[in-house]
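ok new one. same drill as before - structure tokens go in, u give me an amino acid for every spot. 838 of them this time. try not to just spam alanines like last time pls lmao
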């Protein structure tokens, strides 16, 4: 009896609800008298129409209701309720009115009157700066014509709040107001008012549960989340949510590295302690400290277990460190790892799985389960992304050739060689190995991204009381082969890796200098044989025209040819070059030299050997550049039989003779992150064959200042910078000449850190200490008696201009003949030569 009564009540309630819903959605409209709400009746749907829409598709809306023409339906009934609810669920309408438009016999016709929600016409921000508004626009993605509903408003508000919370503004307030746009039907304007408040900073970070590592050390593991310090005012204590989450992971990682592999953060909390100040509490569970136990090897046939254990370098009793274990197995930056033994010998399909086979007390026994696989050979090597550089220029630098055994070290070296070209973005150089286990081969797909490599020098300076203008261009990926072709990929024929440079400098009649150079790094295209040719001419005068009486001038003409090649021993980072150079000095009543009028010739040969192993040319992080060179003229005085005692200066220096020795070394070591230390050492010495002739007045060394020009065409001297002292100022006591000194040395230590590092702009800051000195005689030479300096600087690399530098150096030592040398100096430098070698 009770069951029947319950079923009857439910049936009545269902019909009452359906009738109420239908009446509600009819909004009081008249309905045909043939409808009796107390007695539901079955009808056939004769049609459904939509009214009131402007932007929506009526057919799609009818489809959403589920009311299909020809379908039989109970009126009233839940089918109608579901149709109305389906439309509400779209959140597109302000009002929905379902009416029965007419009834014809057994056919029923519905009309659905809709009022669409307003659409967004435009929006604006108040309370924030333009750059912040631009960043927010990209995140909220509001576009004209979007339906403005509560969901859109909530999402916009939450997105903006998250944007500012991640930046440390935890008290940000966002208010969105709507205003009808009278210029556009059914549209509204949104005004988003933002009060970000002050950035929240961290007062204290409190650790609990840490018994083995002190809290102060744990705080250092938080790289970006720092508490406020009254001592270090430069340390940021702002709270950034994403950085805090990263720091928590880093904290656990550091625990794992110290053997606490079960360490976890039980709970952490943030709470306000004062206005815009929070505390962070971190509760830790360290767990026991674990150690490596026995390490055994299985599946190894190529190498014995003893060899593998030696390469692994982990012994029983060492602190268990999963991170270090993975490095020793797969990627050890400080030396060989187990995987490299196999991958460098063709075992591309090699796999190793370290498995914990026993954990007892605080000790973990490991079994290294290996699958050596077969050796793989390289099938195809392709390159993509080189839109300007020709394929053969890229492929000839690769150490991976079809038919060779696969080698990971060869791939790494190939990536390094591509970076040295300086044609591609070194951050995006990549290779994709595509293995084919069924054939035991692998395809290598190198991907590169071109970057600008040509450079321009356009500058103005002040010299000899006049403006000195300089214009220079350097095309570093030139192609002579395509010079007369119409299919240029840019404004000049490019793509063959040749280098063409032109430079002109003048201040009018007083000084003009012109130079041209061309270099081909692969002469003939088959071997890395370098050939370079350069021509230059400079004229310096007293400013009078050639036709005017009293004109004094010096003309210097020069020509050189360089041939070089890469070596395979001691290793293939070495290269040697030979340069043949001829210079003519033509003096016409030009004072200040050892002779005033006449012609002098300087024919010399330079033999150099160098080794360049830096990882990248713009911001090296590892490797070294070492160069030793000997430059010498023929010893004319030893075989021409002339007595040089008492001869005039014109006769003594008609054919210049000397021998010149130089050694340069620069080492790069990566410390932490991208922090790099660069140590440099330079030494130069020029000697003579005949004591009656003495040391040549040319080819000497000038030390001090920025070293901007690098070479003095007038005297043929090399200009070496020494920051903290004026240009060319570091000379020994009693120095009176202008040609420089025969001996110098220089030592530098630089600490570098990048600020911006991308293809279009590289910026890094540096601090340095350096020292150097010059000597006039070898018997007074003391390599450690140097003029000391320290300072800071910044380097900016723009592909079109090269490497620009600004330094402030402070010299500590007096220089003979110079008043107040020990003071600060600003130095500007520009260098397009980012590395050595070819």
């Amino acid at each position: 009896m009770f069951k029947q009564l319950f079923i009857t009540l439910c049936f009545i309630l269902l019909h009452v609800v359906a009738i109420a819903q239908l009446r509600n959605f009819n909004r009081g409209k008249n309905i045909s008298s043939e409808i009796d709400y107390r007695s539901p009746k079955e009808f056939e749907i004769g049609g459904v129409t939509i009214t009131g829409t402007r932007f929506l598709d009526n057919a799609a809306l009818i489809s959403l209701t589920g009311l299909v023409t020809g379908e039989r339906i109970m009126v009233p009934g839940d089918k109608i309720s579901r149709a109305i609810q389906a439309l509400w669920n779209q959140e597109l309408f302000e009002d929905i009115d379902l009416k029965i438009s007419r009834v014809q016999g057994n056919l029923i016709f519905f009309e659905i009157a809709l009022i669409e929600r307003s659409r967004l016409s435009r929006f604006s921000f108040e309370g924030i700066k333009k750059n912040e508004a631009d960043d927010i626009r990209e995140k909220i993605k509001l576009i004209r014509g979007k339906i403005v509903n509560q969901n859109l408003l909530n999402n916009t508000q939450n997105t903006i709040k998250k944007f500012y919370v991640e930046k440390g503004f935890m008290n940000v307030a966002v208010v969105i107001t709507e205003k009808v746009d009278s210029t556009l039907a059914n549209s509204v304007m949104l005004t988003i008012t933002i009060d970000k408040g002050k950035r929240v900073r961290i007062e204290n970070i409190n650790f609990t549960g840490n018994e083995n590592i002190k809290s102060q050390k744990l705080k250092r593991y938080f790289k970006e989340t720092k508490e406020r310090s009254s001592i270090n005012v430069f340390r940021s204590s702002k709270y950034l949510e994403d950085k805090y989450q990263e720091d928590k992971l880093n904290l656990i990682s550091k625990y794992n590295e110290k053997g606490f592999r079960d360490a976890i953060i039980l709970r952490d909390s943030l709470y306000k302690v004062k206005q815009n100040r929070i505390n962070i509490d971190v509760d830790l569970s360290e767990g026991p400290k674990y150690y490596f136990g026995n390490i055994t090897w299985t599946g190894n046939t190529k190498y014995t277990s003893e060899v593998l254990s030696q390469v692994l370098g982990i012994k029983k009793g060492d602190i268990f460190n999963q991170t270090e274990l993975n490095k020793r197995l797969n990627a050890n930056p400080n030396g060989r790892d187990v995987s490299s033994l196999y991958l460098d010998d063709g075992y591309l399909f090699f796999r190793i799985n370290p498995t914990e086979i026993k954990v007892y007390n605080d000790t973990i026994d490991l079994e290294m389960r290996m699958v050596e696989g077969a050796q793989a050979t390289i099938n195809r090597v392709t390159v993509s992304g080189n839109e300007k550089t020709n394929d053969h220029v890229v492929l000839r630098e690769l150490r991976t050739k079809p038919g060779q055994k696969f080698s990971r070290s060869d791939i790494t070296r190939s990536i390094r060689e591509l970076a040295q070209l300086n044609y591609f973005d070194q951050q995006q150089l990549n290779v994709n190995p595509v293995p084919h286990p069924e054939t035991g081969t692998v395809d290598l797909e190198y991907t590169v991204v071109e970057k600008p490599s040509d450079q321009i020098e356009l500058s103005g300076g002040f010299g000899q009381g006049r403006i000195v203008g300089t214009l220079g261009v350097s095309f570093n990926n030139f192609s002579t082969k395509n010079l007369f072709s119409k299919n240029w990929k840019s404004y000049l024929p490019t793509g063959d890796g040749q280098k063409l440079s032109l430079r002109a400098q003048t201040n009018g009649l007083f000084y003009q200098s012109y130079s041209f150079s061309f270099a081909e790094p692969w002469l003939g295209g088959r071997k890395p044989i370098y050939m370079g040719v350069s021509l230059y001419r400079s004229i310096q005068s007293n400013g009078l025209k050639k036709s005017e009486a009293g004109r004094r001038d010096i003309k210097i003409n020069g020509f050189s040819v360089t041939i070089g090649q890469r070596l395979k021993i001691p290793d293939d980072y070495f290269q040697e070059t030979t340069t043949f150079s001829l210079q003519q000095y033509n003096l016409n009543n030009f004072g200040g030299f050892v002779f005033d009028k006449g012609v002098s010739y300087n024919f010399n040969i330079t033999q150099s050997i160098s080794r360049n192993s830096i990882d990248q040319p713009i911001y090296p992080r590892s490797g070294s550049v070492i160069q030793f060179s000997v430059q010498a003229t023929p010893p004319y005085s030893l075989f021409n039989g002339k007595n040089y005692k008492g001869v005039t200066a014109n006769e003594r220096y008609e054919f210049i003779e000397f021998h010149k020795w130089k050694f340069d070394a620069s080492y790069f070591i990566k410390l932490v992150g991208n922090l790099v230390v660069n140590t440099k050492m330079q030494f130069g010495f020029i000697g003579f064959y005949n004591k009656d002739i003495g040391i040549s007045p040319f080819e000497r060394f000038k030390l001090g200042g920025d070293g901007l020009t690098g070479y003095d065409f007038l005297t043929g001297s090399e200009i070496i910078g020494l920051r903290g002292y004026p240009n060319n100022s570091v000379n020994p006591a009693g120095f009176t000449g202008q040609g420089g000194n025969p001996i110098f040395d220089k030592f530098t230590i630089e600490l570098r850190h990048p600020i911006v590092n991308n293809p279009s702009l590289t910026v890094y800051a540096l601090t340095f200490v350096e020292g150097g000195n010059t000597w006039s005689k070898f018997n007074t030479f003391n390599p450690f008696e140097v003029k000391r300096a320290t300072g800071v600087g910044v380097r900016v690399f723009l592909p079109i201009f090269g490497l620009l530098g600004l330094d402030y150096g402070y010299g500590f030592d007096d220089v003979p003949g110079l008043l107040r040398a020990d003071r600060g100096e600003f130095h500007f430098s520009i260098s397009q030569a980012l590395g050595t070698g070819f």
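The chain has a mean pLDDT of 85. and btw The radius of gyration is 40 Å.
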